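Journal club side-thread
Mid-discussion, someone asked how the predicted structure for our own chain would compare to the paper's figures. Pasting it here so we can look after the session.
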Amino acid sequence: MSQASATSADGTSVPYFTVRRAGLPGGTAEPVPTLLYGYGGFEVSLTPSYQSVIGAGWLEDGGCYAVANIRGGGEFGPSWHQAALKQNRDKVLARYIYIYIYIYIYIYI
């Protein structure tokens, strides 16, 4: 498991975790199938946890599981959460899409 962050187009640093089977290095020439999950709401922080379906059915077959901590969660306190409310809700989706693109293009996982 590793944690990193990507800086979105508007300069916001968005943290994410990737979990993969040991022996599958990042930055390979070919991407591996990646299941991306994102959460950002109610000031709740989300970290990767073991889920048997993902572990047995996805990671063991060489897939990668990524968790994006998009705005709205509690990772950086109330202001991080409040910046994603009401008229700024579209930014949450935009950052989720950015993490997807970042992982696919720059990390090749």
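Post-session note: The chain has one domain: 2-107.
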